[in-house]
Records
---
Amino acid sequence: MVRLRNAGLPDSLRLHYAESGNPAGPAILFLHGWPDSWFSYSRVLPLLPDRYRALVPDQRGFGESDRPEGGYGIPDLAADAAAFLDEVDVTRAAIVGHSFGTFVARRVAEAYPERVTHLVLIGSAFSPVNPVTREVQASLRDLPEPVSLAFAREFQSGTIHLPLPPEFFERLLSESVKLPAHLWRATFEGLLSFDDARELGRIAAPTLLLWGDHDALFSRGEQERLAKAIPNARLRVYPDTGHCPNWERPELVAADLIAFLHGA
């Protein structure tokens, strides 16, 4: 069962979040991709052992969380994540990020290393900037309000390789268009302006990279470069899988996550 709540951070920012599992158990903080919400992990959460406390916020601007005028850089979102952990009384947590969320997750590990027990990056890259992401950025310049389901469908369809359950995919689209057009732009610009190449070596937490070999955004070479840059990192490749293993292969993601947390 997932409980939906709101957390008020010190700057009065309210983050909507889902929670499941044992409130006293080891914490796992899940950070969603762009332009997603907590629902991005809804196929993974039921597969986790009840002993864990899974926390899945809608990041600033996304889903049902507040949408302030600014604060959409990756370091800002990482600070939100640390403040969120404070708000829910979690000292240390495993951090799991998908796509956009991987850059937030690793910034948490760089800036707040004492808060992170393990780091899992699903569909990440050494750098967020490449011809595909530049093309996405260009497509947002004249994106009208409100963002249409058709536009969201075109983008999200391009990130997957395996067919998804129709109800799940339609809900993903509904969550995507909760993000206003100007925040589609602001958050994506914040992503592309982020460069932590010189900070990756500071990541102290054991790190697992999960990547689908049909990822249309980030290449195998990017995974290997990232795994080499982060100390104590290893790469797990999913065959016949796109950019979103947490959508496409939730059973494998949940199993690999739990094995990793158990030290396997």
---
Amino acid sequence: MTQGPKRSAARIGVSRHESGKWDRRQDSVAVEEPMEIRLDVPATGGGAAGGGAEGGRAERGRAEIPVSVTMRTPGDDFLLVAGFLFGEGLVGDRRAIVDLRYCRNVSPQEYNVVTVTLRDPIDPASLTRNFYMTSSCGVCGKGSIEAVEVQGCTRLPRGELSLSAASILGMPEQVRAAQAVFEETGGLHAAGLFDAAGTLLDVREDIGRHNAVDKVVGAALLDGRVPLHDHVLAVSGRASFELVQKAVVAGIPALVAVGAPSSLAVDLAERFGMTLVGFVRGAAFNVYAGGERVEGVA
């Protein structure tokens, strides 16, 4: 499971205008590249022997199925893949994943194709169901929320988690201070995982906010730490339906966002008993759902 050598930031030449003058200098920008995810699964029945799922191939009793292409910032690729598959319900725990590896000899996309070897076969139809759920294609909100329930997600436990205002207000700055690549480029989102005491446990960066969350969840999955009950997820941007969905699947009972939530994100948080906090800026924030976990909420 050795990670690839690609860099998360690149240096490019820019023309800069400042105080009425132009000069030529080097600037750092966040790298954005595609990553294809493929599943290597045990072949099942005649379908896999004849080629398996659309676009897949079978070899030595196994089938390779292309699953998705996502734009991401290189770095923590295997964590991203593990978290993505877990969030989509394609793997249920660490034991389902036998190996993660880069596909070599696929120039010019070397280190941009990751194959995941799964222990058990999957139903190809499940790919359609899962990716429909987060495709942002304008499907009605009720159907989107019910799709999360189909994955087997249940209402989050109340637990012992209790958040103070001071703890919530301090989370975005802790995440920001731990963003090494953002410091260099100014162009990446981040997701941070906190324990019940407000201690920052992990931070991951990516040009896509959903990818940053997948990296955090993937790290916990591969460490055997999911579900993440009594933990808090803090994100650098807005709280979309997709981010709340990923937190629900991971069993995270509280999501803190620097930006605003969407109406569907609030609906989903309420349905599953999640604490959803947004607009955490300066000395203020809003609690949109699950106020019972926030100290002082009336």
